[in-house]
Design goal:
The chain is of the alpha/beta class. Helix content is 32%, strand content 18%. The chain is built from twelve helices and 20 strands. The strands form four sheets. Strands 1, 2, 3, 4, 5, 6, 19 and 20 form an eight-stranded mixed beta sheet that branches. Strands 8-18-9-10-14 form a five-stranded parallel beta sheet, covered by helices on one side. Strands 7-15-16-17 form a four-stranded mixed beta sheet, with no helix packed on it. Helix 1 runs parallel beside helix 2, helix 1 runs parallel beside helix 7 and helix 9 crosses helix 12. It is globular.
């Protein structure tokens, strides 16, 4: 007979979303929570990420609500100098390990089961022993895996790699020269201890950008890097995401500027040009109009490094890598002998249809505010703890569709703004948001002195432009075919 355990909530997934949910539920209820995860350590995809990965946005509003991530310092060196610290992948994994081992489990109300595969129907199986445990769930199963990202080290490439072609995930790059870094990591191609002098980075997303920046910063000649970019990207300017009063004008004033752009835009193309003009977004190649916006966030210094790579291939996606050439949608490109390919083609944001967050005895965690999954999951837990009516729960937690096309972005922002309006109408939820470290900007706004005429004027302008933006949203999303509304 399989062992049976009892719990109020069964959380499937110990990544950023699952742990943020469990942490807030622990504070807001007396419930017992069971967490099941396939990894050996908490942290979800961070366990598999490349070692030089960092957060896109400041550590100050990432993680779980109860526990600070980082020290609240500003970087004084490097490409992020002058801006608030970005936790590295190893730091984040260590942080989540501490959250589970020193806060959640010691509470006596959380049990954690790593190396376990949830099979549905209230049962999970140990990946090490095969033993099955049945769970009697008194309240709800929480799916914290629905929007999980994929990472290069665990995905299967969608293109063929011929024997003799050297390809690695970015995880392998720091090991080059040590005899441990040039295996393929994909089950294809061949490995060698020879240190390459030419690199071809595959992919146009944030992973590829991080990889190019790391290569250049580590000493690679920018002219020895080929970058295959299927689509150019618009990028969020990190200066506009800083959680401290000295950045008030850039952050809150920047939000007002963005709302003005939404209020005045007549099309998607016009919107992004306006967002660029006010400094909210940027692009790497000023001569090309980007066709993608996946909310990647960069510092101005990173953009300057990326612009140093001049051999950029824009012939669509890779279809095959062969000795001496690579085949793409739009043609073939010769490849120099000894080139090392770096596979950054995993999609961290695979398209998934939105669905109700609250579904009877099931909760499906999804984004409620772009681009903040931890905040969204913590808020979902607060709503679960304080509201019993499912219709009201789903009104407060309308999922925001991730913008996979430029046209979808306005609709995603419209859903986010509608969510924030509903939150503002709930006094207790509004109070929780203002004290939540994951919110990022609530304290910044709440801390403005009533006698500070300049900053009060910025807030007034933001409110005015937000109302105008809401008024223009139906026309803007209609011009884009209505895409993106949640």
């Amino acid at each position: 007979m399989d062992p049976v355990i009892e719990t109020d909530y069964l959380v499937v997934g110990a990544g950023a979303s699952g742990l943020a949910f469990a942490d807030t539920l622990l504070d807001e209820t007396d419930a017992h929570v069971t967490i099941v995860d396939r990894h050996g350590k908490p942290g979800g995809h961070w366990n598999d990420a490349y070692p030089f990965v960092t957060l896109h946005q400041p550590s100050a509003f990432y993680g779980v609500n109860s526990t600070e991530l980082g020290s609240g310092r500003k970087d004084t060196t490097g490409l992020n100098a002058g801006l608030y610290e970005l936790a590295s992948g190893p730091e984040i994994c260590g942080y989540y390990d501490r959250v589970v081992s020193t806060r959640l489990v010691p509470s006596g109300r959380v049990s954690y089961h790593p190396m376990s595969d949830y099979e549905g129907e209230g049962r999970f199986r140990s990946l090490l022993s095969g033993a099955v445990t049945r769970v009697h769930v008194r309240r709800k199963v929480v799916d914290a895996t629905y929007a999980s990202p994929t990472v290069p080290s665990t995905h299967t490439p969608s293109f063929s790699v011929a024997p003799g072609v050297r390809m690695v995930p970015p995880n392998a790059l720091p090991g080059l020269g040590s005899g441990t870094g040039t295996g393929t990591g994909t089950g294809t191609g061949t490995g060698t201890d020879e240190v390459p002098h030419r690199f071809t980075v595959l992919g146009g997303g944030k992973t590829a950008m991080d990889t190019v920046v790391w290569l250049v910063q580590a000493g690679a000649d920018p002219d020895a890097i080929t970058w295959v970019v299927p689509r150019d990207s618009w990028l969020i300017n990190r200066v506009t995401t800083q959680p401290a009063p000295e950045f008030f004008d850039a952050v809150i004033g920047g939000q007002a500027d963005q709302m003005a752009a939404f209020a005045a835009a007549t099309s998607t193309d016009d919107l992004f040009l306006r967002l660029e003009a006010c400094g909210a977004v940027t692009r790497i190649d000023r001569e090309r109009t980007p066709g993608m916006f996946h909310l990647a966030t960069v510092a101005p210094g990173e953009v300057e490094v990326l612009r140093r790579v001049r051999d950029v291939v824009r012939l669509g996606r890779v279809r095959a890598l062969e000795p001496g050439r690579m085949v793409l949608d739009g043609g073939e490109v010769p490849v120099a002998p000894g080139t090392l390919f770096v596979d950054c083609t995993a999609s961290a944001v695979r398209p998934r249809p939105v669905q109700p967050v609250f579904q009877g005895d099931r909760i499906v965690l999804q984004m409620l505010r772009l681009p903040q999954p931890a905040f969204s999951s913590a808020l979902t837990a607060w709503v679960e703890a304080h509201h019993d009516d499912e219709e009201q729960q789903n009104r407060l937690c309308a999922p925001v569709r991730f913008p996979h096309t430029l046209d979808e972005y306005a609709g995603s922002v419209m859903t986010t703004m509608l969510n924030q309006f509903h939150w503002s109408q709930d006094r207790e939820l509004r109070r929780w948001i203002r004290t939540s470290r994951l919110d990022g900007f609530g304290k910044l706004v709440a801390g403005v002195d009533r006698e500070d005429a300049q900053r009060q004027a910025v807030l007034a302008r933001y409110r005015e432009q937000a109302m105008a933006a809401v008024g223009n949203m139906p026309a803007l999303t209609g011009a884009a075919g209505g895409a993106g509304a949640g």
